Amino acid sequence: MEQGCTHFEGGSAGSPVRFVRNAQSVVAATLRQLVQPGRVHSAVYTSPDIFEAEIERIFHGSWLYVGHASEVPQKGDYRVRRLGRQPVIMVRGHDDVVRVLMNRCRHRGAAVCEQEAGREKFFRCWFHGWTYDNTGKLINVTDPAGYGDDFRMEEYSLTSAPRVEIYRDFVFASLSPKVGSLAEYLGPAAQMIDLLVDASPTRRIKLSAGVHKTVYNGNWKMVGMDGYHPHYVHASVVSMWQRQADSGIGATHRADPFDGKAKTYTRDLGHGHAMLDMREHRVEHYADYETYLKGVQGGAEYIEALAARDGAEQSKLLVAIAGDPHIGVFPNMQIINNQVRIMVPLEPGRTEVLMFPVLFDGVDDAINTMRLRQHESFYGPAGAGSPDDAEIFERAQRGMNAQVNPWIDISRGMTREQAHPDGTITGHISDEVPQRGQMRYWLELMTEGAELE
Predict the structure, then answer these.
(1) Which residues constitute the signal peptide according to the record (predicted)?
(2) Residue 298: Cβ-neighbour burial (10 angstroms; 0-12, 13-18, 19+)
(3) pLDDT at residue 26 in the model
(4) What span, in angstroms and rounded, lies between the C-alpha atoms of 135 and 140?
(5) What is the CATH number of domain 182-442?
(6) pTM reported for the whole predicted model
(7) Which of 56, 67, 159, 437 is the most exposed place for a label (fewest CB within 10 A)?
(8) Domain definitions of the chain by residue range
(9) Could you read off the pLDDT of 123-168 as tens digits, one per residue?
(10) 212-216 and 418-419 strand pairing
C-alpha cells in the first residue's frame, strides 16, 4: 500500500475505496468517491483524517455561529466559545460593540480569559501580566523598558476573528478572511431566523436562561433535521401527541406532523442549511394554539400585540410557529422548538451540544416560564426526547465502525424531490432531503481548492 494511504473496503460492486491523505491535504478526488448520489461512505463519520480536514476546511474556513448578543447585554459581559479548536471571547466592549476576539495573549500565547462567562473591564494574562481592556486594546505591559523604544502597544491588541457579522443579534464569525458576506451565506435561512425573532412583540429575544450541555459519542453531522425518526426513536412522545396532550406554546405539535398525512416537508435551503418545514401544518392547527395560549397569563395580550403590529395573517403564522422554524444553519447552529443550539465537534465520534432556551422580550413572565418548562420536558436531562437522540447517535456511531459494507444510505425520497424558484428543494417530511443537501455542501467545502489526486 502507498505511504500515507488508508484502505477502506466497500466500494461500488465490492471494490475497495482508497482514502488518500498526504502531508498537505485530504485528496479531493478521494472525497468525491466517498460522497455519492444517495449514499455516503461511513468513513465520512468515523475517519480521524477526514475529521481533521473538516476542522480545517469547514470549522476554520467558513461562517460559524458564535452566540447571541443577548448573552452579553451589559458592557464588559463576555462568553468564552470556540471556533473549531480555536478559543475566542465574545464580548461587549465599553463602547457597546460586540466583538469576537481570539482568546490568546499577544505576548506568549496564553489564554487571557479562563472563566466561561462573566463581566470584566480588563482581561489580564496571568503569565506575564499583560492587560487588555474589554475592546481588546492592550493597555498595560509589565516592565515595558525591556521592549525598547520602538515597541508600539497599539500594535499588540487582542486579535479579532478575521470576519465578524451580526444578523438579528445572532453573532457569526469566520477564521477565514476570504469568506463571502454573511447575508449571502445565510440566503433563505435568514427568513427562518426572522420567524423566531419576530415572534417577540418587540422583535427581540433573550438567551439569558442558561444552557443545557450534553456530550454524546457520535459524529457532529448526525444532529437534527431528520423527519423520519420520531415515530421510532420518540415513540412515547408520539403517543402523547396522539392523545392530543397539551404542552404549551413552543410545543411542536397539536397533531402528529410525521404521520405522512400532515402538510409538512423537508426543505434544503442551500449552503448546507435545511429545515423540517411545518409552517403550513401549524397554521392549520392555529386555533388550538390560540385557545391554549389565551389560557396562559398574558397570552391574549401577546396575540393582540402581534396582530396590531403585523396584521392578522402574519401574526397567525408567528403564533402558530411559536418561535420554532426547526432549522439547521450549517455547520454548527440549529433553532429547534424553544432553543438555539450549538454543535461543537470534539472528535470523529464525540460531539458536545449546547442548548440555550429562548425567551421572548415584551411578554408576560408566565409565557416565558411555560416556554422553559416545555423545553425542559423534551430537552432537559430528564427530558422525554433529547436523551433518546443521544442514544441513537451513539448506536449509529458504533454501527458505522463495522466496515465490511460501509455505505450509509441517504436516498429516501430522491425520486420525489421538488425544486422551487427560490432555489430551495423540498420533499416528504420523512425524506432525506436535509441529509443530501448537507452532504453536497460538505463536499463543496471539503474539496474547494484542495489538491486533486
Answers:
(1) none
(2) middle
(3) 61
(4) 14
(5) 3.90.380.10
(6) 0.92
(7) 159
(8) 66-174, 182-442
(9) 999 999 999 999 999 999 999 999 988 999 999 999 999 999 999 9
(10) unpaired
